[in-house]
Amino acid sequence: MEIVFVLLDDLAFLIGVTLLYSSPLIFTGLGGVVTESTGVVNIGLEGMMTLGAFAAASVAYYTADPWLGFLAGGVAGGLLALLHALATVRFGADHIISGIAVNFLGPGLALFVSRLIFNGATQTLTVPNKIPKLFDGVFPSKSFFDLILKQDATVYIALVLVVVVWFVLYRTVLGLRLRSVGEHPLAADTLGLSVERLKTYGVVASGVLAGWGGAAMSIAVVARFSPGLISGQGFIALAAMIFGKWTPHGTLAACLFFGLAKGLEVYLGTRFPIPGTLLAMLPYILTILVLVGFVGKARPPRAVGQPFLKERHS
Amino acid sequence: MRKLPPLALTGLSLLAGLIVGALALLAAGYNPFAAYATLIAGVFHAPRDWSFVLIRSTPLVLTGLSVAFAFRTGLFNIGAEGQYIMGALGATLFGVFVPLPAVLHIPLTMLAGILCGAAWGAVAGILKSRWGINEVISTIMLNWIALYINNSVVSVEGFRRPHSEASLQILDSARIDWLGAWKTTPEGLAFRESQPLLNDILRTPANAGILVAIVAVILVAFLLEKTVLGYRLRAVGFNKDAAAFSGIAVPRYVVISMALAGALAGLAGGLQVQGVSREVAKLAAMEGNGFDGIAVALIGFSQPWGVFGAALFYGVLKHGGPKLQPALGIPMEIIQIIMGSVIFFLALPGIWQTLANTWRSWRGNRVRSSR
Questions:
Q1: Which CATH code of 3.40.50, 1.10.3470, 2.60.120, 2.60.40 fits the domain covering A2-313?
Q2: Whether the model pTM is above 0.80
């Protein structure tokens, strides 16, 4: 009987850690879904996440209000995304090149401003108040449900957003329009939709979501921004989007799975270092396998990555 | 409407990037002129500064060439980062464990780097030619897989240097820094005492890497412009369908192209180990050598000598950047902001074309009305 309880506690711990590490990925992965649905590739998610994480931590530090920090993270990510939208949607720039520029600019700006306002340091000071936890004190401490349900509010926001994004994309007129410009922009244009505006919505929304993903990292998972904080999570989110076959629910599943890999890495890491690094590369290997078709075929939106310049068609 | 020549586009983008950098400095309350003056002065201050610029430019030339080469053959190699990591790892393993006389050890260690990079590049090439997987996505994934392979291998007992997060150091016979081991011997120190200028350069890890990089520039230019292989590779890049129609086995050339691009990035990693670091370390995050290579390739307009010039330019910024902090208190990340802006403007040929057209029509109207 004793051993069953220990196992249950371990299981609960693992589920809790999985949710914790998944939440930044879920935000950013949803961002990837939204932008690619409108046909714009955004490998700048990494840079937007980094800038969002920094903005959130510094605003949360100076105002002592984590929710203002969270908002600031979204705004910062969204503004950087606006640049990407301007380049790719308005001026027909190559999506990848613009994304690379964003990945230079995001971390560059974050560290530049950090050194200015935190006395030459590339990491912010610890925020006084982190994002609050839900179900705090509802269950006995370290009990099964406490370990699973007592989570940062951002975890629950991320889960709710999965439903919201799914609903908007598949059950509303706006969603149909967003997806139509990703599948066949010329048809959408012919029907009188503004392809430019819809794509811009998609890209900016992805930046806001990535910024929130960064915030979920810097003021919920930990309590400060540092240069290595995001290191690659934007790219993991991109991988999760592909692994999830460009859908919100699939992306959620992929993020949970990658979060579990991360959780196991932390759980095992100290005792067995090599399986730890193998687990760390698992998301990337699986993504390639998915693309190869070993784990079911994935299909991106048809017109993804192609610039749509109206005058070329008229 | 006349199209802008590439050189004008590059020049305008560089200028615009420097202006954005200046605006960022102004907004932060610094004098941009003082900043840029310090940057340039910092590079021409002493002989060791020239040496450092060359040392910093060496990997950039090669990762830039890697990306540029792939570009010219119609592929986007985001994977130079991972190929660099694999090259550095391969060269270190060979440099540590295979004792040979220097005359063999130096070129074979380079070859180990080249082969590991090429193999890693070829994986992306095969994924594309066999399963149609976009190389942008696959190389992003392969970069991270390479990083974790590096971390796994470095932590293996026997290769890991005890009490450290790095590998053992390569044998002296594989080193390519000038007078590498000799310069710290008593005779070496006595000699350096008598030669102040040379001594200043020998204080840096000055190495033969830049010469190898120049040879690579020449070889890539020759390969692309003067050989049948290069012609076919470019044909595939220019129009895949036309190339296939004229009898070129496109899938095979995709693999060849990615392997060669990987070889160049792998060589960059190998030379860095042989000339500067002598070891590989556990990586917490990407170092950015490959991503910097993308910037260099774009600025150099994917022309081999253009890449060389762009790498020197970036080398200057990279060496001068950290000097801004102690001198003026300016965060060195201003370099990243400048480079990001330059790439951004390079990605926007539309904006320059619009500006050029507006300028021409405005000037045209003026000429007409003055008649």
A1: 1.10.3470
A2: yes
